[in-house]
Amino acid sequence: MWIGRLLFIWIISNEVDKVCFSKQVLIIDHADVIAMQNWSHVHTVIEHLNRLPSKQPRTDVMRIRPWYLDEHARFYRQTIILGFFSNPDINASFNHQCSNYEGKVKLMCEYKGVLHKVLPKIQQVYVRFNIDSIVEADDNRFDYFVKKVFPKIKDSDEGGIMLFISSYFEFIRIRNFLKSQDASFCLLGEYSTQKDISRARLWFFEGKRKIMLYTERSHFYHRYKIRGVKNLIMYSLPERKELYPEIVNVLDGSENTACTVLFSPLDKFRLERIVGTTPAKTMVASEKPVFVFCD
Hints:
By secondary structure, the chain is α/β, with parallel strands linked by helices. The chain folds into two domains: 5-97, no CATH class; 115-293, Rossmann fold (3-Layer(aba) Sandwich). Helix content is 35%, strand content 19%. Strand 1 and strand 2 form a beta hairpin. Helix 2 packs parallel to helix 4. The radius of gyration is 24 Å and the shape is elongated. The chain starts with a strand and ends with a strand.
């Protein structure tokens, strides 16, 4: 079920001494909320707009404007995308599926960040890893985790390690990797049953499971309060900026806490919403790969 809304409006306008013409307006409201579900559905819907029907409609073909028959209607459609933030998927739709002949306009925002909303006074260590290409970005992130991050987790005797993961596909990949390593872990994802969630939270708090995998969508929809977190590792930054302090604040009250965040130059959109636009530009372009925040 979509919380966001797609509205397709057909406006008929009659003017004196002018030929009757039509205007189309596509409004995608709460785009950021739809992104928390599956933006590929929106992409599919837009792709099927302004297509010629497979069967002849019950109308007089002579009344259809020529540009519709020539499949040029998308150039006359006005598309309005509304949301609290943008991401690569939304940008892709804006760049490739919004084709109005009059051009297009994007509202750019400058963010101040949400680090001041983090309550515990802990060091938040941001580590930038290199990417070979956009296509291999996911593999580069996974390789960095396997080679640089996981060995430290595996050799540690302490539990209370939370792995926060934004994408469900990344969640599945890390789950399969931990299984192959016979790691002690539990799952808390958006498709987990309530019984499994309750059991995982209890096991993690009692120390029966060393690692917990936690997804952004699961937190977005349920806002679980996780107890026993001592070491927070953000495998990928959250899309929604308000989720970052909520997740980091689970460390409040714990001793010997640590917070590590992995990011790449491709995470600039997410990064600027969390640390601020100006610091994000520096972190992406700087020669040093490690940055520490402690508010």
